[in-house]
Amino acid sequence: MHAQDQMTPNERLQAFMKGEKMDRILAMPILVSISHRVSGMTHREKRASALKQAQSQIDCYQRYGNDMMIIEYGLHGIGTALGSEMNDPEDSLPAIVNHVLKNLQDIDQLDFNKTKKENDPWFARTLEACEICQEKMGQEVPTGVLITGPFTAVSSILPTENLLRATRKDPASIHRLLRLCTDALKDIYKEYIERGIIILMCDPIASGTLLKKSQYVEFVKPYATELMSYIHELGGMCCYHICGNTTSIVMEMVDTGPDMLSIDNLVDLEYVKEQVGKRLPILGNVPPVDVLMLGSRSDVFESVKTCILKGKDSPMGYIIASGCDITQNVPVENIDYMMEAVRKYGRYPIDEALLNEPATDH
Amino acid sequence: MKVMVKSKEELLQQLSDSVFEMDDENVADVAKEYIAAGYEALDGVLKGLVDGMNRAGQMYEEEEYFVTDLLVCSDAMYNGLDVLREHLPQEKAAGAVNYKCVIGVVEGDTHDIGKNLVRIMLETAGFEMYDLGRDVPLQSFVQKAKDVDAQLICLSTLMTTTMPGMKEVVDILVKEGIRDKVKVMIGGGPLSQAYCNQINADGYAVNATGAVTLAKQLVGMA
């Protein structure tokens, strides 16, 4: 347990769910893309080994005392299992360079058995990483998995531009792909849930920056809803995140039935609180680039203060988080500052005078 | 039987509507009909196809159209252009300025939808575009700008890991002594005006239509 905390993350999360007293506000900065930096390894080293994936999360937790460790299945897992080619950068997140599906007529050639843990070494490695996290730290801190939602899964198979065009030109084929991806994701989610892992469903390609609301409702919502009920059938828990501006689809997202909603920094926390704060806990939304990557210690403190001010009275509870995953270019000290600010402004009982003090140099 | 030849205005409207209404399948036939009737190809492009794309851009600005709509509109525009292009006059009018722009996604990043939309809208606005694609080596931006004598370089990225590449392009321009000859515009998910200032780029635009306004302003296009 972190020296400045009075409860472990597990105890804190339990108290949060039961509405009992906590020492401070829950804080879940999304420390995925930055974690190898905290451990002093390269991104390639991390992704090549289950042990290192787990170790980088444990190192983050031991340094920061953040409330959730996060293993990365990622956004491209289904596509790569099926045959999409990735690049292999030494020290950065890989990207797809060649999608497995070029033509929607070839959907039948995709073999979704390849996405199962027996056949997909990446998936198996992340499961092993989860097991290590649970074994070493499970008594103290929960582990989640950052994993694709249905629409982004399709974009790992088919280039996103083609996917977007096809929502208009060939919606039936896109629904077929979504059906196949949703079924595959069920089997994948199940493996994590059986290991006690929280599902962090991320669907960035379903972002309001790319899709309009009617597209979200037609192509994303039904499949996300199905996945949420499946997660709950298995006794699992899901936090739902879509990147970018989701202002227009916040209600729809909550209708799919997640246990928690995580919002990007492009969305106003106050607005989300008013719209859906009565229905579920909200996570958000310290800006990962403008504040955490480019900001000073003072910027980080002020941003944490603003988030807590906006979120603290959300009816079903508020968890401070980054608005999106924190990249490796963020100075690792800035996460120290974020947690320091959380421990200052988010300590219960909340000190309103402290929260309302004018901006200063911290 | 005598076939009625449609008026030029009617066909221009149809070309514009085909683009605006995302009819990428029939636009080529309309363009053929327009050429067969003996009307000027250049007007067909500017007052027909480009007009439709501009209307689409306006709707995007007003959040009525989204990315998918713009993509299909641009498919229609290019399908029409494929027909009209060979009928365009070869010689530019004397004294006409060519605004040239090099565009690409910086090295290490392969996300190119935003870049493609900006290329389409700048092309629509009359820029001569040199699209280097995605994952572009940084030196290539500068080399291409020198080769074609471009006034503008547009850099795009969706990833924070590749953002520093944008600064490097600016630095290369300085090192080669041509920083004052080329404007640098940046765009992409994680970027902001603050980052633009920090790396001494000339401008940041939040979306494709904003990019057009900014580009025109930077090169002094009327």
- The tally of helices of chain A reads 16
Helicity of chain A, as a percent range: 40-55%
Q: Indicate how many domains the architecture of chain B comprises.
A: 2
Strand composition percent of chain A = 5-15%
**Could you name the CATH homologous superfamily of the largest domain in chain B?**
Cobalamin-binding domain
Determine and state the CATH class of the largest domain in chain B.
Alpha Beta
CATH architecture of one domain in chain A: Alpha-Beta Barrel
Organism (chain A): Desulfosporosinus hippei DSM 8344
Protein name (chain A): Uroporphyrinogen decarboxylase
InterPro entries (chain A): Methanogen_methyltrans, UROD/MetE-like_sf, Uroporphyrinogen_deCOase
GO molecular function, one term (chain A): uroporphyrinogen decarboxylase activity
How would you describe this protein?
The complex is a heterodimer of chains A (362) and B (222). Chain A has a domain at 35-278: Alpha-Beta Barrel (TIM Barrel), CATH 3.20.20. In chain A, 48% of the residues lie in helices and 12% in strands. Chain A has helices at residues 9-18, 35-39, 43-48, 50-64, 77-82, 121-137, 150-155, 160-169, 171-194, 213-233, 250-255, 269-276, 288-293, 297-311, 332-345, 352-355; strands spanning 27-28, 69-74, 85-86, 96-98, 143-148, 198-202, 238-242, 260-263, 282-286, 318-322. Chain A has an 8-stranded parallel β-sheet with strand order 1-10-9-8-7-6-5-2. In chain A, helix 9 (171-194) packs parallel to helix 10 (213-233). Chain A starts with 8 loop residues before the first helix and ends in a 7-residue tail after the last helix. The mean pLDDT of chain A is 96. Chain B is α/β, with parallel strands linked by helices and 222 residues long. Chain B has 2 domains: 8-87, Methyltransferase, Methionine Synthase (B12-binding Domains), Chain A, domain 1 (Orthogonal Bundle); 100-219, Cobalamin-binding domain (Rossmann fold, 3-Layer(aba) Sandwich). Chain B is built from 9 helices and 5 strands, in the order H-H-H-H-E-H-E-H-E-H-E-H-E-H. Chain B has helices spanning 8-20, 27-36, 41-61, 67-84, 113-124, 138-148, 164-175, 193-198, 208-219, and strands at 100-105, 128-131, 152-156, 183-187, 203-204. Chain B has a 5-stranded parallel β-sheet, sandwiched between helices. The longest helix of chain B has 21 residues, at 41-61. The radius of gyration of chain B is 19 Å and the shape is elongated. Chain B starts with 7 loop residues before the first helix and ends with a helix. The model of chain B has no long low-confidence stretch (mean pLDDT 93). At the A-B interface, helix 8 and helix 13 of A face helix 4 and helix 8 of B.
